[in-house]
Design brief:
The complex is a heterodimer of chains A (249) and B (229).
Chain A (H helix, E strand, L loop, with lengths): L3 H6 L2 H33 L13 H28 L2 H33 L7 H22 L3 H33 L14 H33 L4 H12 L1
Helix pairs in contact in A: 2-7, 3-4, 3-6, 3-7, 4-5, 4-7, 5-6
Chain B lengths: L7 H18 L1 H21 L4 H22 L2 H9 L2 H7 L4 H30 L7 H26 L8 H9 L1 H16 L4 H30 L1
Helix pairs in contact in B: 1-6, 2-3, 2-6, 3-6, 3-7, 3-9, 4-7, 6-7, 6-10, 7-8, 7-9, 7-10, 9-10
Chain lengths: 249, 229
């Protein structure tokens, strides 16, 4: 049957074993890609003719901003899968996403502010992208707040799933409304960051960092989802076996 | 046993009438959001230099922040009591479209908080220095905006109705989602006060309101069903 793999995917012990096996396959590439990207970006890439060395923060900022959005989509998608097929595994993945996504969002905000200080002369500019990133952080905090205030895990899962789906419909609307809000206010006077096509020496490290951050996210998600599954299924038989195997192995 | 069939329209009308009657019996509570809105907008001139030009600049912000916050005030009670005394369960089980019945309750929220704001907005705008010519634009923006606020807020109220402690959580859930309403509404108000064409933000606000009215009932029904479990 074509759907067997899908049902097996939904079984916590199966997913736990799969995640345990897959984690190093994402963690090691993440480390290597980030190392290569950092060397390429911080040492080998030439300084920008306008921004000097200040542009190099893009190698952390852009991947973090990219992931802050991607993690939200992953969170909402797995929440929807959980709601539709009532899968514990999908809920565990969704719950594990929130803290990671909020951290990437905070990182993107912090690096954006650090970049803004030398470039704009101020830490905080109500720049459309920074502002929509800030609203995204609030969305993550709302999701975490809702989860935390419901004691029953099953109900917390379903309620936060509805919130994540409402949020993911709203994220593009919020993003574009913030961009229009700003462009209605003033013509974009700041330089367009990264719009002129980048030379390969700058672009390749950025792509390496993007790939590295994404692999890092997957590895982190697998680890957190395993922890989440162990907590939820702490009374199940397989949990003791899995814990025993980890302890001895 | 005689089977009584009640159509959806009759049920929704009865629900709206019941909720309005309940609200009228507690007119003190019902009027609170309106009083809150007036106090908030009156605080802005106190905090600033009461120069007309300055007030005119901050009028859109004062009006819309006030509208957002006062719309939040009444949300907490929107479903809470009906969830506690079992009314919502009966509504969920009665066989009529649950989304529609909840939409009727949301309409009551708008009638009690949105409509008074629409009526009082010209007064508050005048106090903040908006010219008479700006009133149609402001009215249209507040009308569309409060509808969207009630719809989005109802989803948040449904998600938090069964929580014992939800004080600021509701605000944290609802306010980021309502950011487009604030942006387009304040923008339309600012253009109306400046006497410029305000069609663009008004159309965007209308689009957002229509989208909320289309999608919110389903999210709302899902949220309330989860809360009832």
């Amino acid at each position: 049957m074509a759907w067997v793999w899908f049902h097996r995917f939904g079984s916590p012990p199966h997913f736990y074993r799969l995640a345990t096996r897959l984690t190093p396959w994402f963690a090691w590439p993440a480390a290597l890609l980030c190392l290569a990207g950092l060397i390429g970006g911080l040492v080998l890439a030439p300084p920008d003719y306008q921004q000097g060395d200040g542009f190099r923060i893009i190698y952390v900022h852009a991947p973090a901003a990219w992931l802050s959005l991607m993690v939200y989509v992953v969170m909402a998608t797995s929440a929807a899968v959980g709601l539709i097929w009532r899968m514990t595994v999908a809920y565990a993945v969704s719950a594990s996403c929130a803290v990671i996504g909020a951290s990437f969002t905070a990182l993107a905000l912090a690096t954006g502010m650090l970049w803004g200080r030398p470039m704009w002369g101020t830490y905080w500019e109500w720049d459309p992208r920074l502002t929509s990133e800030l609203l995204l952080l609030f969305l993550y905090l709302g999701y975490l707040g809702l989860r935390n205030s419901i004691d029953d895990v099953g109900r917390a899962d379903r309620a936060s799933a509805v919130l994540a789906i409402v949020g993911v419909v709203n994220v593009p609307i919020i993003h574009y409304s913030v961009i229009w809000w700003n462009s209605l206010h003033q013509a974009p006077s700041v330089m367009k960051f990264g719009r002129p096509t980048m030379p390969a020496a700058m672009l390749v490290p950025l792509l390496l960092m993007l790939a590295g951050f994404t692999a890092y996210f997957v590895a982190l998600l697998l680890i957190r989802a395993r922890g989440e599954l162990l907590r939820r299924e702490r009374n199940a038989h397989w949990t003791a076996e899995a814990a025993g195997a980890t302890a001895t192995g | 046993m005689s089977e009584q069939r009640v159509g959806f329209a009759a049920a929704a009308a009865a629900l709206i009438a019941r909720d309005l009657r309940l609200a009228l019996r507690r007119s003190g509570d019902t009027l609170q959001p309106l009083g809150f809105f007036l106090v908030v907008t009156a605080l802005f001139p106190l905090a600033l230099d009461p120069q007309l030009s300055l007030l005119r600049d901050i009028a859109p912000a004062a009006l819309w922040v006030g509208a957002l916050l006062s719309s939040l005030l009444a949300l907490d009670l929107l479903f809470r009591e009906d969830a506690q005394d079992g009314t919502l369960e009966q509504l969920a089980l009665c066989g009529l479209p649950f989304q529609g019945l909840l939409l009727a309750k949301t309409a009551v929220h708008w009638l009690l908080t949105g409509l008074p704001l629409v009526l009082i907005a010209p007064l508050a705008a005048t106090a903040l220095g908006a010219p008479y010519e700006a009133m149609p634009g402001i009215l249209a923006a507040v009308l569309l905006g409060t509808l969207a606020l009630s719809l989005i807020g109802a989803v948040g109220a449904g998600l938090t109705m069964s929580l014992k402690r939800n004080g600021s959580l509701l605000a944290l859930l609802v306010l980021p989602l309502a950011a487009p309403v604030l942006i387009f509404g304040a923008r339309a108000t600012a253009l109306a006060i400046a006497g410029e064409p305000l069609a663009a933000p008004l159309y965007l606000l209308a689009a957002f309101t229509v989208l909320s009215a289309t999608l919110a009932p389903w999210a709302l029904a899902a949220a309330v069903r989860i809360g009832l479990e």
